[in-house]
Write a structure and sequence with these properties.
The protein is about 40% helix and about 15% strand. It contains 16 helices and 14 strands. The strands form four sheets. The chain has a seven-stranded mixed β-sheet with strand order 2-8-7-6-5-3-4, with helices on both faces. The chain has a three-stranded antiparallel β-sheet with strand order 9-12-11. The N and C termini lie far apart (about 50 Å).
């Protein structure tokens, strides 16, 4: 039975009109988009769950801040407001604004990684993986085994496998590990949180081996909420205090602020030691890639909105609503017997497309199949988090097999209502009824050499092509 919907801690002041295309129009649109949801126009999507990054609704205070933004090239008052907020919440000596999370990775990762180096994570998301590989280094995922079983309901499935982490360091040599990355929450594993105990244990391993520990902090506030709610000893601690403890175990953080700080653009990079020699290198790289370090590729108005959003995103009432909305959708899927990464994580529901289409192999991309069916069914844009997104081995060029075949329904913050959530559930229920009639998946006809899922072209595999082996897609 579906749980009670948690009421919104706000009321709506401005609305954006939506329109639903006909089923025939949707089928034509996805075909024109080469069966890649990234090529769809936003206006052709009735409900857009492609990402929760930058798609959030800002508050009246943030919009007021937009008008107060100081557009000075250097030393703007909006920069210092952001600096104060960042230092207050994270307790780091240095805070660097950038235009988004991948910019933080572009600025910092080449300073720590290179050919012959490895980076180990509880799980890399696609753009983070790409920025590691662009330096010449290689990624190793080290999530706990429980995360690989979507039906297994245990807390903190985003955790690092500490025993395996130690073995990997011993195998490759501590000097060859450029960094350890803790992704909170663990996006690729289904938005699953990381426990404070696990963070503490990983920090001990990093310190013992002299390896820098970085937090991929895109959804740090949602992670803190799960710690407060589910980890013994934290129920009486504030979200801010939990964040401060979590970040105290790391040396640096990179953040897409387009998620938990509820803004449309922005990112942060933090260094705990305010006297670290890394800071001068970060400033120099930022000036080259992003702009002067006091604006980091952002307008003053964006700095202002980000400073306000840092505090709004850690409000308990907001976070209870935020997680409650996701849990309501998950409970409706429970009632319908639809599998997902459970218990549900923070920023969306990761539907188990492998369970929905057990007859479709990983190299025909069941996660992408479900994403396309969702669009055709109800105009819902989602995305694959599976083998299609994972891509090819950077050394051999062969298709990698993902641990999961998910279709992610990433819910933008403060945007959709209960009625929209119900439409999502009902669309999935309808697709499940006819899942057995969808016999084959998709093949890639063209792909770029990196981050292919943003740009690749696909086509349906015809029934008569069963058993045919396709050559590698053109690079």
């Amino acid at each position: 039975m579906a749980i009670k919907y948690f009421p919104e801690p706000f009321r709506i002041k401005v609305v954006e009109p939506l329109r639903m295309l006909t089923a025939e129009e949707r089928a034509a649109k996805i075909a024109e988009a080469h069966y890649n949801v990234f090529y769809l126009r936003g206006e052709d999507c009735y409900i857009d769950l492609l990402t929760d990054s930058g798609t959030n609704a800002m508050s009246q205070e943030q919009w007021a801040g937009i008008m107060r933004g100081d557009e000075a090239y250097a030393g703007a008052s909006s920069y210092y407001k952001l600096l104060d907020a960042g230092k207050d919440i994270f307790q780091y000596g240095y805070i660097q604004p950038v235009h988004q999370g991948r910019a933080a990775e572009k600025v910092m990762f080449p300073l720590l990684l290179g050919k012959g180096k490895f980076a180990i994570s509880n799980m890399f998301f696609d753009t983070t993986r790409a920025h590691v590989e662009l330096t010449g280094a290689r990624c190793i995922d080290c999530v706990v085994e429980a995360a690989k079983d979507p039906a297994r309901r245990v807390p903190f499935k985003g955790n690092m496998d500490v025993a395996r982490l130690k073995k990997l360091i011993a195998e490759h040599g501590a000097d060859n590990i450029g960094m350890i990355v803790m992704t909170i929450t663990n996006n690729s594993a289904g938005g699953q949180p990381v426990s404070m105990q696990n963070m503490r244990e990983v920090a001990e391993v990093a310190r013992a081996n002299g390896i820098l520990l970085n937090i991929d902090a895109a959804r740090y506030a949602e992670n803190a909420f799960f710690v407060q709610r589910d980890e013994p000893g934290y129920a009486q601690k504030s979200i801010k205090d939990i964040i401060r403890e979590m970040f105290s175990y790391a040396d640096t953080f990179t953040m897409s602020a387009k998620k938990d700080t509820i803004v449309n653009i922005g990112g942060l990079l933090g260094v705990k030691d305010g006297n670290s020699p890394l800071i001068l290198k970060i400033k120099a790289a930022c000036i080259s890639y992003e702009g002067f370090f006091t604006y980091g590729g952002l307008a003053g108005r964006d700095l202002e909105a980000l400073a306000i959003g840092l505090y709004e995103g850690i409000d308990n009432d907001y976070l209870r609503y935020r997680i409650g909305q996701i849990e309501y959708l998950a409970s409706r899927l429970d009632d319908a017997g639809i599998g997902y990464q459970s218990p549900v994580g923070g920023h969306g529901v990761f539907v188990d497309a492998r369970a929905m289409f057990p007859h479709i192999p990983y190299n025909e991309y069941p996660g992408q199949v479900l994403a396309i069916e969702l669009y055709k069914e109800a105009g819902i844009r989602s995305c694959d988090i599976g083998s299609y997104m994972l891509g090819n081995d950077p050394d051999t060029g062969t298709q990698l097999k993902a641990d999961f075949e998910f279709t992610r329904l990433a819910i933008p913050r403060r945007v959709y209502t209960q009625a929209h959530i119900d439409i999502m559930a009902e669309a999935l229920i309808e697709i499940k009824k006819r899942a057995h009639t969808i016999k084959r998946g998709y093949r890639i006809t063209w792909e770029p050499p990196i981050l292919r899922h943003f740009q690749a072209h696909l086509e349906p595999i015809a029934k008569e092509a069963a058993g045919k082996v396709y050559p590698a897609a053109a690079q």
